[in-house]
């Protein structure tokens, strides 16, 4: 599924997701993928999705699996996109702590730090 989303194959990814049983829609993995589908669709200017959809799906993923740094990282970007920089920063700090706790090092940590830098830049801009 992620391969499809990485390639921008939104229609195909949506078709795969439509085969998920309704009882499984609230699983953290499914919520995360649904959020990723919405995120990628928005990047492609698809008007069927909104940033609010992305945030809700990723919040659901974090609610079901709060110790997954990838979910926290993604949710941080949804908050960042909405201009909610404080929540973005909080999620990214949690993601960093989990990455360090679980593996000590993960290349994805650099993306989280990049998000923090962007959020702090926006926070500083707002404080002027």
The parts where pLDDT drops under 50 for at least 5 residues are: none
Give the fraction of residues assigned to helices.
over 70%
The radius of gyration computed from the alpha-carbon positions, rounded to a whole number of angstroms, is 15 Å
Order of helices and strands: HHHHHHH
SS element count, helices: 7
Our estimate of the beta-strand percent is under 5%
Largest sheet: none
Q: Work out the count of structural domains.
A: 2
Strands, total number: 0
Structural class call reads mainly alpha
| Spatial shape | globular
The end-to-end distance, rounded to whole angstroms, is: 43 Å
Mean pLDDT rating: 94
Describe the 3D structure.
The protein has 128 residues and is mostly helical. The protein folds into two domains: 1-65, no CATH class; 66-128, no CATH class. Helices cover 73% and strands 0% of the residues. The protein is built from seven helices and no strands. It is globular.
Give a quick precis of the structure.
This protein is mostly helical and 128 residues long. Helix content is 73%, strand content 0%. The protein folds into 2 domains: 1-65, no CATH class; 66-128, no CATH class.
Q: Which key terms come to mind for this protein?
A:
single chain; 128 residues; mainly alpha; 2 domains; 7 helices; globular
């Amino acid at each position: 599924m992620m391969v499809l989303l990485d390639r921008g194959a939104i229609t195909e990814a949506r078709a795969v997701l439509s085969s998920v049983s309704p009882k499984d829609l609230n699983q953290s993995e499914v919520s995360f993928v649904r959020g990723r589908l919405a995120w990628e669709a928005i990047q492609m200017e698809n008007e069927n999705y909104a940033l609010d959809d992305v945030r809700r799906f990723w919040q659901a993923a974090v609610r079901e699996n709060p110790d997954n740094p990838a979910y926290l990282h993604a949710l941080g970007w949804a908050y960042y996109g909405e201009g909610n920089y404080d929540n973005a920063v909080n999620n990214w700090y949690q993601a960093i702590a989990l990455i360090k706790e679980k593996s000590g090092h993960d290349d994805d940590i650099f993306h989280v730090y990049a998000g923090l830098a962007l959020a702090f830049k926006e926070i500083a801009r707002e404080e002027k």
